[in-house]
């Protein structure tokens, strides 16, 4: 797990290398949209041989929790998206944020604003009555120290440009232009001296050496507000080291919608990353591959490895429109990765889930059998939960509990047939899938029956279910003694 610190190194070589960052707020789980943003930042940095950083934006002290921080780190590590350096905690850098605000204040790029909440409310009501957008028009914008009231609380507002327009070349959206009149003098330092999110983000990005800000397109408006601070500080410090505060390059990626085109929510499957792993039983490489294809592609390729993703990823190829989350497609993709996965790894993932399904299972004594069964189990499973359910019969205790449909297969005629099958199999010596197949097919032919007439009651008696791996695989995995005991238990 990533470690955490509030210290960041000086920006020394930002112009020589790519630096990206993922900066979640620890007020909840790592959701699927956040995971995709982290992925695109990680890929962009890897593709360009750069650095991918993490920042925990924990300035909302009331809602930030240690549990959420742990969940974010855990989810990122699971996806292979841990930071290249220790994570930065934003709250720990509050003094540095305030320092920048005071530099802007001293240089005339920000000002003390003594407007009260009542005065602001009156301005807002007037704008509504006149049916015009509300913009801060503070009488304190150009006021000097001589006019500052003593012992009265104030905030520090940025002095945003009022004339002309600002254009930002966006790596995803293309060039975006906003009239400067639309950007108001927002607060960068509260009346208690604490910095706002808008200021903290800009200062942290600069100090961390971030060259490319890749985030959701719901932050486009923030970019135009934040660049006011960047350019003010560039004017203030530009001559000190010859570098100043350069504009980062922006890439605003569209949000993810549900399959119905509506904003993504839990009803669409928008869960925390931990739920995809723990509750849904998905593999990280499947989630990685699926998130990669949500809004980005490389020709018609659907199955893309991490190595290929790093080689092929181009932020300019990200779609401008919203992507639609398709849970069925994710599950199908996961099925592919289940079939490709190492058997020992799958057995280790399944083992903890078997406790509830097969209480008799012991990892110490059953892991070898579980791994042996994986080749025939994984071809039928879409996730780890299905693997566990499919494996449960191997560790079931007698008397076997039969599903209702399985009970329906065991008619008097079928039970009599099971007795004859058990007698026949008593003489089977090798107990291999090949030998068992030859024996039972010969028996079916002798009785003038299709093999299914033998296999259906056999499956019910051996597994308690109507679906399972191939019947000869089931017999082999259970072994001769256990197989015969289960068959005779259900025989007439």
TrEMBL record:
PROSITE patterns: AA_TRNA_LIGASE_I (PS00178). Residues 18-330 form the Glutamyl/glutaminyl-tRNA synthetase class Ib catalytic domain. It is found in: Cytoplasm. It catalyses: tRNA(Glu) + L-glutamate + ATP = L-glutamyl-tRNA(Glu) + AMP + diphosphate. The keyword Nucleotide-binding applies. Keywords: Aminoacyl-tRNA synthetase, ATP-binding, Cytoplasm, Ligase, Nucleotide-binding, Protein biosynthesis. A motif ('HIGH' region) lies at residues 24-34. ATP binds at residue 266. Its EC number is 6.1.1.17. The keyword Ligase applies. Belongs to the class-I aminoacyl-tRNA synthetase family. Glutamate--tRNA ligase type 1 subfamily. Catalyzes the attachment of glutamate to tRNA(Glu) in a two-step reaction: glutamate is first activated by ATP to form Glu-AMP and then transferred to the acceptor end of tRNA(Glu). This is Glutamate--tRNA ligase. It comes from Novosphingobium cyanobacteriorum.
């Amino acid at each position: 797990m990533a470690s955490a610190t509030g210290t960041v190194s000086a920006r020394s070589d930002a112009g020589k290398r790519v630096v990206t960052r993922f900066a979640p707020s620890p007020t909840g789980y790592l959701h699927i949209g956040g995971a995709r943003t982290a992925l695109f930042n990680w890929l962009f940095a890897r593709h360009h041989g750069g650095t991918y950083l993490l920042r925990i934006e924990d300035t909302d002290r009331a809602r930030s929790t240690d549990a959420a921080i742990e969940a974010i780190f855990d989810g990122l590590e699971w996806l292979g998206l841990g930071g290249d350096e220790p994570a930065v905690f934003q709250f720990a850098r509050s003094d540095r944020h305030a320092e920048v605000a005071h530099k802007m204040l001293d240089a005339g790029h920000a000002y003390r604003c003594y407007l009260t909440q009542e005065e602001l409310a009156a301005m807002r009501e007037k704008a509504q009555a006149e049916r015009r957008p509300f913009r801060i028009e503070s009488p304190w914008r150009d006021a000097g120290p001589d006019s500052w009231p003593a012992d009265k609380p104030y905030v520090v507002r940025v002095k945003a440009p009022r004339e002309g327009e600002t254009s930002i070349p966006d790596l995803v959206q293309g060039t975006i232009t906003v009239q400067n009149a639309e950007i108001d003098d927002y607060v960068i330092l509260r009346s208690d001296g604490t910095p706002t999110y808008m200021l903290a983000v800009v200062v942290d990005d600069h100090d961390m050496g971030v060259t490319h800000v890749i985030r959701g397109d719901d932050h486009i408006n923030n970019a135009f507000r934040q660049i006011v601070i960047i350019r003010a500080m560039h004017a203030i410090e530009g001559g000190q080291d010859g570098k100043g505060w350069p504009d980062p390059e922006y890439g605003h990626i569209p949000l993810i919608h549900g399959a119905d085109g509506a904003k993504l929510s839990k009803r669409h499957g928008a869960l925390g990353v931990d739920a995809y792993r723990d509750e849904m039983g998905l593999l990280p490489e499947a989630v990685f591959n699926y998130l990669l294809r949500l809004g980005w592609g490389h020709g018609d390729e659907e199955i893309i490895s991490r190595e290929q993703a790093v080689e092929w990823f181009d932020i300019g190829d990200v779609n401008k429109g919203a992507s639609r989350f398709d849970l069925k497609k994710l599950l199908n993709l996961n099925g592919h990765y289940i079939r490709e996965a190492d058997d020992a790894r799958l057995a280790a993932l399944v083992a903890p889930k078997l406790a509830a399904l097969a209480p008799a299972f012991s990892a110490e004594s059953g892991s070898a059998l579980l791994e042996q069964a994986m080749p025939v189990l994984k071809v039928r499973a879409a996730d780890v939960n299905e693997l566990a359910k499919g494996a449960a019969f191997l560790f079931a205790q007698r008397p076997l509990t039969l599903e209702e449909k399985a009970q329906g297969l065991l008619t008097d005629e079928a039970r009599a047939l099971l007795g004859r099958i058990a007698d026949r199999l008593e003489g089977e010596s090798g107990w291999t899938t090949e030998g068992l197949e030859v024996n039972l097919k010969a028996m079916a032919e002798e009785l003038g029956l299709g093999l299914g007439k033998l296999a259906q009651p056999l499956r019910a008696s051996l597994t308690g279910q109507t679906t399972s791996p191939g019947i000869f695989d089931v017999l082999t995995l259970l072994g001769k003694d256990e197989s015969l005991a289960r068959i005779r238990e259900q025989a007439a």
